[in-house]
Specification:
Elements lengths: L1 E4 L2 E8 L2 E2 L8 E3 L4 E4 L3 E8 L2 E7 L3 E4 L5 E6 L3 E8 L1 H7 L12 E4 L2 H16 L5 H18 L20 H14 L6 H7 L4 H12 L3 H19 L4 H7 L5 H12 L3 H8 L1
Antiparallel strand pairs: 1-2, 2-10, 3-9, 4-9, 5-8, 5-10, 6-7, 6-9, 8-11
Helix pairs in contact: 2-9, 5-6
């Protein structure tokens, strides 16, 4: 289903596995000029972009973005849950200071990017729960996402990007990559603000401000979203009980787990499992 908020439109998609290399199935395609997140993990997916073919494996939450050519998928062995985001070209042009209508020169498949993941998680939650984002919140998300893409993927200097956050420390790409690894490893438990801050050599106070300024959500909102992504995967692919899933993602209070799962997914864990199987 396609939805639109201020500055961008987005599509939430859930697709079954397919293999057009060995079966008479239609290839799937990621359209041109799209910023996307694959919430589902994938092993050895096959794709082509223009005349170039490739394969990739990546964990859930990875970024998949297209440029001038679509990405055509010929083999995807797992079910796919993805969010496709299409920023308004006029917004990209305005934020770039009139220098660019699209930040990517070539496709990106399977990159870890906490900023894109955080924005996509907010949009997905709005979609699955049916809660509309207000104009200010959606505009802020669109501006943050486009500014990030222009700097990190388009090669623009931060000072050239209109509306880039100022006044607070910005986390470097290396720090964001480290944090992503720490969060993924710590989902079963043991994550704390102090520990996350220490992993990038900042005090908890400065880390919290820098994270929110860079990513657009608080550290704990990001951690919670990743824990619930892992919970969705376990509910979809294993027969673990809801209680075991809650413990596996570091939320051993089952009542609390059920409440926050419903707040993010729009239904309780048991109903979610019935819907996706």
């Amino acid at each position: 289903m396609q939805e639109r908020v201020s500055g961008l439109r987005f599509v939430h998609a859930e697709l079954p596995p397919h293999d057009s290399e060995t079966q008479t199935e239609t290839e799937t395609e990621t359209g041109r000029f799209q910023i996307g997140v694959a919430f589902s993990a994938h092993e050895d997916v096959r794709f082509r972009v223009g005349e170039r073919s490739g394969c990739a494996s990546y964990a859930g939450g990875a970024v998949v973005c297209s440029a001038d050519d679509p990405i055509v998928w010929s083999r995807v062995q797992e079910p796919t849950e993805a969010l496709e985001i299409y920023p308004d070209p006029a917004l990209v042009m305005r934020i770039s200071g009139g220098t660019s209508t699209w930040p990517l020169g070539e496709a990106v498949v399977g990159r870890r990017d906490s900023v894109v993941l955080a924005v996509a998680s907010v949009l997905r939650r709005a979609h699955v729960t049916g809660v509309d984002l207000d104009e200010v919140a959606s505009s802020a998300l669109a501006h943050r996402l486009v500014a990030h893409m222009l700097v990190e993927y388009g090669g623009l200097a931060m000072r050239s990007v209109v509306g880039t956050p100022t006044g607070h420390t910005q986390l470097t790409p290396k720090a964001l990559s480290t944090l992503g690894e720490v969060v993924e490893a710590g989902i079963p438990g043991g994550l704390s603000l102090d520990g996350l801050a220490a992993s990038v050599h900042l005090s908890p106070f400065h880390f919290a401000r820098a994270f929110k300024s860079t990513v657009g959500t608080t550290p704990w909102e990001f951690v919670t979203a990743r824990r619930l992504d892992r919970a969705r995967l376990l509910l979809r692919t294993t027969d673990l009980s809801v209680e075991a899933v809650a413990t596996a993602v570091g939320l051993s209070n089952v009542s609390h787990f059920r409440r926050i799962f419903a707040a993010h997914a729009g239904c309780n864990p048991g109903r979610y499992r019935l819907q996706v199987r």
